[in-house]
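TASK: fixed-backbone design
INPUT:
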């Protein structure tokens, strides 16, 4: 589908050309990048749906098949059109428990209709309380402690912000002996006593 140019010439000017536009009529098609999306209470999320149709389709959203969604303080709908393609977006603001469920995007034209579904679920966050269960896995040591507000880690001489732990180490039974943390052909030492002190600080700040 698109424009074609037909040109005729025989060596004697001028040449002659004609432009022909080909249009293919077809029913709507839908594809969805992410059909399962998580969000937190009080947050904001955007659902995406892509459609193709000609003639251009009528596009809209529904929630749990109960009602059509229109733009409001809670929802924002937008469509970006390019030729026979439409990118549909639905933004949900200030999410509460009633917003979780199944959302559907619809596309209809004179040749047919189709729909796609997106499931929005709640993400729960929980804070670790017991330092004995803390595990350091594939994470920069400084960044991990900084997230919990322990900003004194730079003062530790044996720990550098470039040290990354690969694999998984359990420091629940920390003692004064030292553990070797290997990365490639390099080996760096982090004492169990230092790790235990850091985890204790994390425990105090998370209470």
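OUTPUT:
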């Amino acid at each position: 589908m698109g424009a074609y140019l037909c040109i005729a010439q025989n060596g004697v000017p001028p040449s002659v050309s004609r432009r022909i536009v080909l249009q293919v009529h077809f029913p709507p098609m839908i594809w969805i990048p992410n059909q399962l999306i998580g969000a937190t209470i009080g947050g904001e999320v955007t659902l995406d749906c892509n459609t193709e149709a000609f003639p251009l389709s009528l596009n809209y959203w529904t929630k749990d098949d109960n009602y059509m969604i229109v733009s409001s303080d809670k929802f924002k709908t937008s469509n970006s059109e390019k030729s026979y393609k439409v990118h549909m977006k639905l933004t949900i603001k200030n999410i509460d428990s009633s917003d979780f469920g199944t959302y559907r995007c619809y596309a209809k034209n004179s040749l047919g209709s189709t729909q796609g579904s997106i499931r929005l679920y709640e993400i729960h966050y929980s804070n670790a309380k017991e330092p004995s269960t803390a595990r350091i896995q594939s994470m920069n040591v400084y960044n991990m402690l900084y997230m919990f507000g322990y900003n004194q880690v730079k003062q530790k001489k044996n720990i550098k912000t470039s040290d990354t732990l690969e694999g998984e180490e359990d420091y629940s039974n920390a003692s004064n002996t030292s553990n070797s943390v290997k990365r490639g052909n390099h080996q760096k030492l982090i004492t169990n006593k230092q790790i235990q002190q850091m985890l204790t600080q994390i425990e105090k700040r998370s209470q």
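COMMENT: Residues 192-206 form the longest helix (15 residues).
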